[in-house]
Protein backbone atom coordinates (compact mmCIF):
# COMPACT_ATOMS: atom_id res chain seq x y z
CA UNK A 1 0.00 0.00 0.00
CA UNK A 2 1.38 3.36 -1.00
CA UNK A 3 -0.53 5.18 1.74
CA UNK A 4 1.17 3.16 4.48
CA UNK A 5 4.58 3.80 2.94
CA UNK A 6 3.94 7.54 2.66
CA UNK A 7 2.70 7.71 6.26
CA UNK A 8 5.83 5.85 7.40
CA UNK A 9 8.14 8.25 5.57
CA UNK A 10 6.27 11.29 6.92
CA UNK A 11 6.55 9.98 10.47
CA UNK A 12 10.25 9.18 10.07
CA UNK A 13 10.96 12.64 8.62
CA UNK A 14 9.00 14.29 11.41
CA UNK A 15 10.99 12.44 14.07
CA UNK A 16 14.25 13.37 12.32
CA UNK A 17 13.33 17.05 12.18
CA UNK A 18 12.30 17.08 15.84
CA UNK A 19 15.50 15.28 16.87
CA UNK A 20 17.71 17.67 14.89
CA UNK A 21 15.88 20.69 16.30
CA UNK A 22 16.33 19.37 19.84
CA UNK A 23 20.05 18.83 19.21
CA UNK A 24 20.50 22.33 17.77
CA UNK A 25 18.57 24.07 20.56
CA UNK A 26 20.41 22.03 23.19
CA UNK A 27 23.73 22.83 21.52
CA UNK A 28 23.02 26.56 21.49
CA UNK A 29 22.24 26.55 25.20
Structure description:
Keywords: Membrane, Transmembrane, Transmembrane helix. This is Post-GPI attachment to proteins 1. It comes from Iconisemion striatum. The chain has one helix and no strands. With 29 residues, it is mainly alpha-helical. It has one domain. It is rod-shaped, with a radius of gyration of 13 Å. The mean pLDDT is 93. Helix content is 93%, strand content 0%.
Task: Describe the structure concisely for a colleague.
The protein has 1 helix and no strands. Helices cover 93% and strands 0% of the residues. Keywords: Membrane, Transmembrane, Transmembrane helix.
Descriptive terms for the model:
1 helix, 29 residues, mainly alpha
Q: CA-to-CA gap between the ends?
A: 43 Å
Q: Structural class given helices, strands, pairing?
A: mainly alpha
The total count of helices amounts to 1
Count of discrete domains = 1
The amount of helix comes to: over 70%
Unreliable runs: none
Mean pLDDT: 93
Radius of gyration: 13 Å
Shape descriptor: rod-shaped
Order of H and E elements: H
Question: Hey, roughly how much beta strand do the residues contain?
Answer: under 5%
Number of strands: 0
Q: Main β-sheet: number of strands, strand sense, barrel status?
A: none
Amino acid sequence: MKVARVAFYVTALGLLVVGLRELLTGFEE
